[in-house]
Amino acid sequence: MWKNYLKITVRHLLKHKFYTFINVFGLSVGLSVCLMIFFYVQDELSYDRHHENVDQIYRVYGDLTFNESRFEGPITPYPVVQSYLDNFNEFEAGVRLKHYGEELIQYNNKTLKIDEIMRTEPSIFDVFTIPFIKGDPKTALQDETSIVLDEDHATKIFGDEDPIGKTILFENKKAYTVRGVMKNLPSNSHLEFKAMVLMVAKDNFNYRSWLSNNYYSYFKVKEGVDIEELGDRISMHSVEKMLPEIEQFLGKAAADPVLMRQSVHYSLQKLVDIHLYSHSDSEMSNNGNISYVYIFSAIAFFILLIACINYINLATARSADRAKEVGIRKVLGAARKQVIKQFLSESFLLAVIAMIFALLIVENTLPYFNTLAGKELDPSYFGNLPVFIVLIGFILFVGVLAGSYPALFLSSFVPSKVLKGSLRTGMKGGSLRSILVIGQFAISTFLIAATLIIFKQLNYIQNKELGYDREHIIILGDAHMLKDQKKSFRNELAKHSSIKSSSSSSYLPVPSWNNNTMYWPTPNADLNTGLLMDVFNIDEDYVDVLNIEIIKGRNFDRKILTDSTAIILNESAVEEMNLGENPLGKFVYTYKSPTELQPLKIIGVAKNFHYRSLHHQIGELGLRMGNYSQDIIIKTQANQLDQALEHIEKQWSATTGGLPFKYHFFDEKFNNMYKTEQQTGQLFAVLAGLSILIACLGLFGLAAFTAEQKTKEIGVRKVLGASVMQIVMMISKEFGKLVLIAFVIAAPLSWFVMNEWLTTFEFRTEINVSVLLFAGFISALIAWLTMSYHAIKAARTNPAFSLKYE
């Protein structure tokens, strides 16, 4: 029986090659999109799950509010880990992490850079699972001269040599001995470092204070602990530790401890939730977003649904071709369930063929998808049980979804009516087909509108007046390699006509992160006048290089010695502190030590500029003179970028003795803030294109079928004098109505969904009616062009052949 079903199915598919192609191609594209989105979602959901006892690992996350300023993020004080371990037996182990940054290292005559080094503690191996290739985790970080390298960097530095016990030199000439080689951290980890060195606590304010946040704190928690209740208790404990420090430098009792407890809250954030649910400015790495996981999953489903709708539409529209087959089968004694099996076997065979082609499409397009999504997906189809189950699941889903209705519809034919030729076909007899076409184009129009709005927002970001210049600026990120020659290096740069100016600073509005609490109007002010605000350490040239406007007072001047204890506030800080129309000459106060406040004289007010991403409001910012800088910021002449780069590289090589030259453009760093949005927009554009391609494939087939069904009518109309355009409009009218209804459904849905997305930006564009109308126009135009081919072909046919056809 099944052999007979298969034989008939193959014969039918080969006989109707045009419709078979449309179905197979549409289903293949839909399945390939679903597979790639599945791999994307699987990767996003797998972050940090490679650690043992992953459900017991948590990160401390702070939410602190002083006055009306708020700091929220995973950065915590240094004493947190040991204090929590000493006072709460729910914690099994804890570890601190802090970025060291990148470092140029030397071994023998070889010099190379380690991109990301992490300061940490031996207890990192008690919290995280970090497999070693060589060495012992128990002794790998035994002292401050120990270093652990990942596999890639150990190979780059030592080649085939055994790295254990070998010594490498950092750029500052400090020697480190390799005590271990770890496996490369997987790409689906929010921890991104290539080497580890020991974190050494020093006897200074930052290491002892509960009011200085600089470290990431992770814990392994015992099983069965009420995490929310534990979070409340560690918050109370943290307040108790903070209050004595506050009272110590205020010289009096601090604010109401009850109010304090409402302002300080620490929670425990599950490790596996960090990548998709945590989005502060101070994250360890660029995180994903659970919303995009849901959105892309839904889009994949709808694209596959569009492909299945094509199959249903074409199968039911062409029901007359199979009606006699069904009628004869029933007359010869076939039961309805046998007919159903026949048509389901066709849809399942088609699904299997489509899946084979889908796998070929995935294999050839996955590298491009990886580039688009910023991933490194390399799935194993049959060696990975979840993937294999998904493959089978997709085949069953498509087979059942696409085949069920046609099978039930065709098997319901009454033999007497079928053999008399009284079966209705075409669009007029297909209200379900009309609904399905509307659904297809509603989805496609929505995706087109969403893509247009995303790119409209990205264009808004690119053209938004930020309050500073970001064009024609080069950033050298290895300024520390210049040591005490930074000033002379910059002086040499200034001699070249292609260089306008330069500055040294570790803080750029792309964004940078550093905050302090400022007090005013007197050093004896209570806690309620404390403002937790961002503070950038800059030099006297920073304001001019970035063209930041000083609206009151003046910029820093290195010749004025007192400027080392001066500050420039932005407008938001002046307003929040209520410093009045003329804040110049007034003082604000910040920590100098646990027992001493330092007065800072206000010498200028900067016009507000966007030093954070446009997702956030412009906060309170202070600018101070500082000596340490990781970056050199170079402003070039607009039309002399190549000459500037050539001169900078030449001076760099001469100053550093030939060390590697590395630079970035400010624009690149700025755009990187919106990398997620850019990738989302590109993915939406591709998915919108694919969805409308699949929808138009189905429309193309239906238009061909409709033109075929109206052959006689077209011939009669032409004999009576109808023009080609009139006949084209007649055939297109039925489909045009459906596309218009689809737009009416998609427009308000697009506005609602994308308006919600735009609320994630504090500064955003508006959704104009013109954008929605343009999306509808694109959808309608593509649909009309798709239909017009067959309509024009039918209209240009000689009436003699049209009438002879019947």
How would you describe the overall organization of this protein?
The protein has 806 residues and is an alpha+beta fold. The chain has 25 helices and 23 strands. The strands form 3 sheets. Strands 15, 16, 17, 18, 19, 20 and 21 form a 7-stranded mixed sheet that branches. Strands 4-5-10-7-9-8 form a 6-stranded mixed β-barrel. Strands 14-22-13-23 form a 4-stranded antiparallel sheet. Strand 1 (57-66) and strand 2 (69-73) form a beta hairpin. It is a multi-pass membrane protein. Residues 298-412, 686-799 form the ABC3 transporter permease C-terminal domain. GO terms for molecular function: transmembrane transporter activity.
- Gross morphology is elongated
How large is the count of helical segments? 25
Percent strand equals 15-25%
- The whole-angstrom Rg is 34 Å
Structural class: alpha+beta
Q: State the major sheet.
A: 7 strands, mixed
- Average pLDDT works out at 82
The total beta strand count reads 23
Offer a quick outline of the entry.
The protein is α+β, with helices and mostly antiparallel strands and 806 residues long. The chain has 25 helices and 23 strands. Among the domains are: 185 residues, no CATH class; 224 residues, no CATH class.
Q: Helices, strands, pairings?
A:
Elements: H1 2-15, H2 17-45, E1 57-66, E2 69-73, E3 75-77, H3 80-87, E4 91-107, E5 110-120, H4 124-127, E6 132-135, E7 146-150, H5 151-158, E8 167-170, E9 175-182, E10 195-198, H6 205-208, E11 213-221, H7 227-250, H8 257-263, E12 264-270, H9 274-277, H10 290-317, H11 319-331, H12 336-373, H13 385-411, H14 415-420, H15 431-463, E13 473-476, H16 486-494, E14 499-505, E15 515-518, E16 531-538, H17 542-545, E17 550-553, E18 566-570, H18 571-577, E19 587-593, E20 596-606, E21 621-625, E22 631-636, H19 641-656, E23 664-665, H20 666-672, H21 675-709, H22 711-719, H23 724-758, H24 769-795, H25 799-805
Helix pairs in contact: 1-12, 2-10, 2-12, 2-13, 2-21, 10-13, 10-15, 10-21, 12-13, 15-21, 15-23, 15-24, 21-24, 22-25, 23-24
